[in-house]
């Protein structure tokens, strides 16, 4: 028993060392921009950079659109599959897992081939169309996480009973969806939303190949041309990711507490 406990703590110590020692080294290096002393000059340089503000704001906007439209796509799909088409569940799960198997560069080249300026749907012929195509790309990348989060939340409620009760009271499908289903799966929606946000903020391939001013290409550009700012940006990106993961845990716990109340 003691040996098992020892090896468990040893494994935890190795994991903590593996993850946090490089992070501490990166943070320490980001403070060395001023010669001979530690300072936050690198962070000040990053936050005062107009390009940082523009790219981060653009990625935030793209993340918002991705979350909203992804939610409007995934929640009705998961609801309809669970209620009316349970036999299609394996197929839908297979489709939502495809972005994990197909590399992002293959997906975006397919989009460029299908939606270039010479095609019948020339998304890349305008900035608005390219932004729409980028949001569609992000929705594709987030499908495995958003669908799993929503489907897991939907398993905890009796979809059929809720639907039948709402129909007996005279509710139409939009009312059932937005007044009955969405509030009950909100914990899953928020979990998927935070994961989607973290993916969009750091995504490089699709934004770079579509030539959009996103945060991912900016990270690469700064990393190739500056010394201390890339370390500061790495810490900032890491903090954003961990903040998203922490919010997922809070939402999950809140959802469990809400369900446990009589």
UniProtKB/TrEMBL annotation:
It is a multi-pass membrane protein. Signal peptide: none annotated. Keywords: Cell inner membrane, Cell membrane, Membrane, Transmembrane, Transmembrane helix, Transport. Residues 56-251 form the ABC transmembrane type-1 domain. It is found in: Cell inner membrane; Cell membrane. It comes from the Bacteria. The keyword Hydrolase does not apply. The chain crosses the membrane at residues 7-27, 56-79, 91-114, 120-147, 185-210, 230-251. The keyword Cell membrane applies. Its main location: membrane. InterPro entries: MetI-like (IPR000515), MetI-like_sf (IPR035906). PANTHER family: INNER MEMBRANE ABC TRANSPORTER PERMEASE PROTEIN YDCV (PTHR43357). This is Spermidine/putrescine transport system permease protein. It comes from Neorhizobium huautlense.
